[in-house]
Design goal:
Elements (H helix, E strand, L loop, with lengths): L16 H10 L8 H15 L7 E5 L2 H11 L7 E5 L8 H5 L3 E5 L10 H13 L7 E4 L8 H11 L3 E4 L7 E2 L2 E2 L6 E5 L12 E5 L4 H9 L22 H12 L1 H19 L5 E3 L7 E2 L5 E5 L9 H10 L5 E2 L15 E2 L3 H8 E4 L7 H16 L1
Parallel strand pairs: 2-3, 2-4, 3-14, 4-5, 5-8
Antiparallel strand pairs: 1-9, 6-7, 6-11, 8-9, 10-12, 12-15, 13-15
The protein binds pyridoxal-5'-phosphate (PLP).
Keywords: Aminotransferase, Pyridoxal phosphate, Transferase
Pfam family, one: DegT_DnrJ_EryC1
InterPro entries: DegT/StrS_aminotransferase, PyrdxlP-dep_Trfase, PyrdxlP-dep_Trfase_major, PyrdxlP-dep_Trfase_small
């Protein structure tokens, strides 16, 4: 008999989502606009800011990828431009650069947060400027929920006057020095894909800081229709708005977001305890108290010289055999066939983490039984 699959990260409904969906049906708001969309935007905004800072606006969109695409357009990224992007990330961080006909310039990670390295970032900026092309934007990612080095990265952004697009797709509920991730960038994006900490099945949001920018984002996301009784267009538009049905799921999910964060952090603590007496396996943790990760995914790195020869692959296969999903870390973009022509600045940190790192089941809906099976499969591998 095969055992039930344990997933890396699966949707975890709170229960009230269906109420918002029923509202949409009752009032025939079956469209990419409506009270759930407006309400979901307000929920996100008040979560990010505690309603204190009116300067940010949230636009709910069809995906995080769409949000990144609009962010690049709003920053004026065009054909032939260069945009700096953290190399170790999901391809969705980088693909929209190419949608705009621009070139990604990839930058390595530092080993504390696994995110974009300030030293390599500044190197890259200086050299691109010397070559005659100042990068138009920096895409920095809070990978697996861990905040990037916010102060260092934004200091460089200010010094060279290059805006930051904050990819907070994995980091809703994380914070840095008490400020929520999603509020640092000139523009920020969130994702509500099925595997994220909360989900709308598919969806995303753009967080803007400049007054008027949300309006422009929604204009572009709704086919860039000019004001006229007929359909008139002066620029290219997109169909990127979020469905009122999906937004209903989002409203219910916002009610349980803090519970989901503590559920994920409990999984992280489970792995810290599990590996505390295992030599050569490090559970990736916050560098200090400035950082608070939602631990969307719990990550280990395995040093086979210290584990007595047990490698990342041994652990991965041992879990796979027990029908437990796990996955190597994101393969860096500069190693991807599709980006092999793109410039890269780094010293191989991301490559090493890609080789030795493993994402472990991290869902807030895992049971004691699941944890027992995970523990057994991992310890099996060490007791052989
Ligand atoms: C999921 C994700 C995205 C894209 O979000 P979608 O909603 O799936 O389009 C972008 N960046 C990162 C880092 C992600 O994990």
């Amino acid at each position: 008999m095969t055992k039930d699959k344990i997933w890396l990260s699966s949707p975890h409904m709170g229960g009230t989502e269906i109420k918002y969906i029923n509202d949409a049906f009752d009032n025939n708001w079956i469209a990419p606009l409506g009270p759930n969309v407006t309400g979901f935007e307000a929920d996100i905004k008040s979560y990010l800011l505690g309603q204190e800072d009116p300067s940010i606006e949230v636009a709910a969109l069809s995906s995080g990828t769409a949000a990144l695409h609009l962010a690049l357009i709003l920053l004026g990224v065009k054909q032939g431009d260069e945009v700096i992007c953290q190399s170790m990330t999901f391809a969705a961080s980088a693909n929209p650069i190419v949608y705009q006909g621009a070139t990604p310039v990839f930058v390595d990670s530092e080993s504390e947060t696994l995110n974009i390295c300030p030293v390599q970032l500044e190197e890259a900026i200086k050299e691109r400027i010397t070559k005659g092309k100042k990068p138009k934007a920096i895409i920095a990612v809070h990978l697996y929920g861990m905040p990037y080095k916010v102060d260092d990265i934004h200091k460089i952004s200010e010094k060279y006057e290059i805006p930051v697009i904050e990819d907070s797709a994995e980091a809703l509920g994380s914070h840095y020095k008490g400020k929520q991730c999603g509020t640092f960038g000139d523009l920020a994006i969130l994702s509500f894909n099925g595997n994220k900490i909360i989900t709308t099945s598919g969806g995303g949001a753009l967080v803007t800081r400049k007054p008027g920018l949300k309006k422009e984002a929604i204009f572009l996301a709704t086919q860039a229709r000019d004001e006229a009784p007929h359909y008139q267009h002066s620029q290219i538009g997109y169909n990127y708005r979020l469905s009122n049905i999906s937004a209903g799921i989002g409203r219910g999910q916002m009610e349980v977001l803090d519970k989901r964060v503590s559920g994920r952090r409990d999984m992280f603590q489970f792995y810290v305890n599990l590996f505390q007496n295992v030599n050569g396996v490090e559970v990736h943790s916050e560098p200090n108290d400035d950082y608070f990760s939602n631990h969307w995914l719990s990550i280990i790195s395995v040093d086979e010289n210290k584990t007595g020869g047990i490698s990342r692959e041994d652990i991965r296969k041992s879990l796979e055999l027990e029908n437990i999903e796990c996955r190597p870390l994101w393969k860096p973009m500069h190693m991807q066939p599709v980006f092999k022509e793109s410039p890269y600045y780094g010293t191989g940190i991301a490559e090493t983490f890609f080789k030795n790192g493993l994402c472990l089941p991290s869902g807030s809906n895992l049971t004691d039984d699941d944890r027992f099976r995970i523990k057994k499969a991992i310890l099996n591998c060490f007791n052989k």
